[in-house]
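Hi all, posting the design record for the shared folder.

TITLE: backbone redesign
STEP: 1 of 1
STRUCTURE INPUT:
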């Protein structure tokens, strides 16, 4: 427990930045009209492949005894992958709406 608290104290500025970015993201997304929300999010989700690559690179640089960083990196890879797949699924569904019906 002491190592976890020491880790938090050592990285407190990064934790503040992450928390503030979460609130900022919620505010920005909350003000987008619903008509524009789906096209913007599908494109943004597909671009998040950069997150996957970044998480893999970071996980490769972390030492094997830094368990919290490995867990966070693994979660970043999993959630980034789900985000990219979701972006392509939403984009595919939107494109299906514009196809002519038989």
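Okay, here is what came back for every position:
SEQUENCE:
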């Amino acid at each position: 427990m002491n190592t976890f608290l020491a880790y938090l104290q050592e990285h407190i500025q990064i934790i503040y930045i992450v928390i503030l970015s979460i609130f900022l993201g919620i505010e920005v997304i909350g003000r987008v009209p619903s008509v524009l929300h789906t096209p913007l999010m599908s494109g943004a989700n597909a671009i998040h492949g950069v997150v996957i690559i970044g998480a893999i690179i970071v996980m490769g640089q972390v030492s094997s005894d830094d368990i919290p960083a490995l867990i966070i990196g693994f979660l970043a890879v999993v959630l980034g992958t789900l985000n990219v797949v979701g972006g392509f699924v939403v984009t595919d569904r939107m494109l299906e709406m514009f196809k002519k019906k038989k």
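COMMENT: The CA atoms of residues 55 and 75 lie 9 Å apart.
Let me know if anyone wants the other runs.
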